[in-house]
Model the fold of this input.
Amino acid sequence: MKYPILIVAVLILSAVGFHAGRRRSFKAVDGEIRRLHSLPGYYGWYVALWCALPAVMVLLMWLAFQSSVITSLVVSGLPPEIQSLPRERLSLIVNDIMNLARGNAVNASPDEFLLAAARHYNRLKATAFLALAALVMSACAAGLGFGMRHISPAMRARVKVERVMKVMMALCSTVAIFTTIGIVLSVVFEAARFFNRIPPADFLFGLQWSPQMAIRKDQVGASGLFGIVPLLTGTLMISAIAMFVAVPIGLMAAVYMSEYAAERVRTVVKPLLEILAGIPTVVYGFFAALIVAPFLRDIGGRIGLDVSSESALAAGLVMGIMIIPFVSSLSDDVINAVPQSLRDASLAIGATTSETVVYVVLPAALPGVIGSILLAVSRAIGETMIVVMAAGLTARLTANPLEAVTTFTVQIVTLLIGDQEFDSPKTLAAFALGLVLFIITLCLNIIALYVVRRYREQYE
Amino acid sequence: MKRPSGAALLLILFAAATVMMPLLAPAAGAAGRDYISIVGSSTVYPFATVVAERFGKTTKFKTPKVEATGSGGGLKLFCSGIGVRYPDITNASRRIKKSEIDRCRANGVKEIIEIKIGYDGIVLANSRKAERMNISRKDIFLALAKDVPSGIGESLIPNPYKTWSDVNPALPDISIEVLGPPPTSGTRDAFAELALQGGCRKFGWIRAMKKTDKERYKAVCEAVREDGAYIEAGENDMLIVKKLEANPHAFGIFGFSFLDQNADRIQGSIIDGVEPTFENIASGRYPLARPLYFYVKKAHAEMIPGIKEYIREFTSEKAWGPEGYLIDKGLIPMPDSEREKFRSDGRSLRNFSM
Amino acid sequence: MIRNSHEARLELIKAGLKRRYAKEKIFRAVGISAITAALIMLAILFASITKNGYSAFQQTFIRLDIFFDSQVIDPDSTGDPTVLSQADYGGLVKKALRDMFPGVGKRREKRDLYSLVSPGAAFQLRKMVMDAPGLVGTRQAVWVPADDDIDMLVKGYIRAAGDGSGRISARKAAWVKSLVSKGAIEKRFNTAFFTGGDSREPELAGIGGAVAGSLYTMLVTLILSFPLGVATAVYLEEFAPKNIWTDIIEVNINNLAAVPSIVFGLLGLAVFLNFFGLPRSSPLAGGLVLTLMTLPTIIIASRVSLQSVPPSIREGALSVGASRMQAVMHHVLPLALPGMLTGTIIGMARALGETAPLLMIGMVAFIVDIPAGIFDKATVLPVQIYLWADSPERAFVERTSAAIIVLLAFLLIMNALAVVFRKKFEQRW
Done:
């Protein structure tokens, strides 16, 4: 890649521009900086920006079009009988030419016209690079000249430079918006195509999930039932088990840390708990599938219970462990936000610490705690790897945590890995599931954030 | 702390970002592909990956990218068209169907090279911790079909059997739980054809239906129950093996190579009195044996580097010969004459027609 | 009477106190046990993974007496590298094995014998000859990797079964025993595990490719997400007018932070792959998806960090005539930067361990070559772990755990770095 050289050249030119601009501003006032509107450095920045921005824009535009222009030029140089081939076929030949050009020959004696085209391609590429270099450098130089010409003691260089910076920052902040739009659009579009074939009511209220339909006419597959109720119950069951583990442990840990633990204990234990949150979910998945699930099955077997090897219990337990630090650190914040005066008042009338916690601190912190639990639930619902590795694939309606259940995320992964045809309801169903998942977690998040914020405001 | 350092660091990072962004741009354009793209059957996957790996390590070409999409899924992608975006080779654990050839034709994939690589048996296996099952194809059909003969006249009822012993008192008294491949898999097609249809045909009146109402016959014989007894475990035979090991009551359906590789953990059920062994499958005595294939696009063979050499490697004696490394992985070799035929087909890129 | 009732009340209170103190103790104990429970789970997790994985850092090797037969390698003594590279090195290995154990004849027996050493042995010999063609015609003692089953046997994970049904037949076990007695089997440090790419043979499989893939992916993520995140945070915190538009952005960012990661994968599939046509399974696409996923984390951490800079700093700067931009760039930002970097490191650590969204954009393929750039097909460390966790070979359990140890080591280093950073630059106002 020769392009970094270009960028470095632009940067060097900009640096030159910076110094020249600075020098020019000094000169313009004969060294009496007081007469300048802005500090000399801002004149330098002004020139440097003029130098770099147009050049980078030219570079980006060029690169965006370069390959397609070169390709079409190469194609137009090919014999007419090849040019008239269908587009996809042509793309193969172009690929071949590019491989040839890189010295990556397919067969020892390629056709003469291909060799010629490859040479043509290499030539074009070299020419294009030279042209681009010339263009970028001249854009740079032009910007530099333009910037230099405009330097005068009265020019508001600082204001202009600051405005550019501000606009750039504002542009950066829109990325978050575009991400959300992207998510919504990508999921909604494909989901809409899905709902064209499967009525939303069947999808939302159907009791059977059996998406593996036949992929050919002459094949007999599953009937293609897309009812998400079994997935929903499965997801909820695993999440409920996880919360059953995480909420008591997390909450009690938070209470102990904020109300009882000595400073020294805190500094050791808190980071240790946070390690639990930092462990990748794929590790938890491996742990659940390899260690917890067989362990539960053995125990079940010993006491005469039939525990499925992919029981909801194993996945839920491990997910609970993962969520403990999430609950504890959020609740810790919330509990710490309860004013000390409330505690002092309670202790002053003779309540023990535990009574203070149970009757004063926790009730005061309740909305915040609920908010953090909701956030934890939303996380449990969206968690993927643990359930992909440790939960089952059977969509069944059951309330028995020892049986295998499946979840939204497991099904999304199963449907999308492998067969990637965007015209079968099977693949599109993954996006519909994604939409449902997005909406559920979105609602939970909004409620939780609202509750937490209201709660914070109460004591601020 | 020094103040300017922060702003300077920030600037450097911004500069780095501007350096990077143009580098990202050309990706949107047409970047040449210089490696082989292979999709298809998860049964052939272990063989294809081994060949691909050796091919990558012993030639100057890049190692092909192999994805397991199932035979049906692979052929669907394969037949989507000619071009860099489409795979060059697809593996299949069954022969290509007429409908798929038509689809290929319609999308411009006119010339296909067919290479049969060997044989594989479909096994119904369970954990070694449990009892070995001795089952007939008829029992398999009764246990897994969506509708089964009611026993009264020529009528069907939704499959009522919950345990294997419901189907046949000689079988163990455990609930039916079979992990099997989804319809994108060639193993599923072959299983439906060989085992389910094979068992279904034992009912005279259903066999008679084949002549009168072929579609209904197929639907009756090949439809699999959806009440949870048959679990579609995705395109991952290895996953099924792991799950069987964890759950001694479950059975799994997959290729012989997986049984061969995991013989210490799982055992194949005896079907119609024949044990799934290397010798029984090679001799054709085992009822659920089927050939494995891969298909190559001729148009790509001349354009993507390495395809011809990959075929050469796959069809060499050291790979698929009776002592080749594929045989170590569980492939059952073809007789010499067949190997010779497909080797010459592959080397001359002979177009295949049905 | 009065005194009596007073005393009675005191009695009552005392009795109650006892109960209340007992309750207090119990409550405290529950708190401690909650924390202990969490820490025990952490310990179990680490212990079980270490126990499963540490042995993968060693690999069993077998010494073979190889005769580099010029008749096999280069019959016409051309010395041509293409001839040398195409030779049947597997045959040399098989010959050496047959010489070592004469009297093995039947097909099954031979198959067993050949499966003592890894198929990688042939690659190794090939590389030796390619590097030094002078070896042809000589006889050398070469240490080659043992097959994964033998490796597992030597490490004691599996036992030889007598009935011939197990992975290791009695025959094979006897051969291994005789090799051990000859000193021809040795456990050595497993360099291939760190330098190699993925392989179908556990004894050849390494995390080199996955680590390189992770590195490229993280590079893309860092270079895009840090500037974007910091700029967004500075803008929202210091410059943005308070209006509906910025409110929307704010709510939006908080929501994005809690969107399930797999949804970002769907976005990547639909937008980056299907719409923009970025190469499937490339670190570029992976890095872009992870950028979007980590951005909210970095923005939120950066904003908190900016908020913690006291207003007096800004006011001081403004009062001596600095513009807002100058106040922020020269005074606030340098003070907030350590906090921002800490947030970024934590965000990157999360991205490094993320798997689910990458499954959606094709990073689960079997990829042997080590990627050399952001456009190459690649996989990342957590996805490699996922792939290996699903592999049937017993030896992959060990290697999966070892890969997890490496991943956790990376993460611990990153988190320790964040803690050190925080400690070093933490300022209390």
Q: What stands out?
A: Chain B touches chain C through 54 residues (CB under 8 Å). Chain B has two domains: 37-119+291-347, 121-289. Residues 1-6, 24-30 of chain B have pLDDT under 50 and may be disordered. The radius of gyration of chain B is 24 Å.
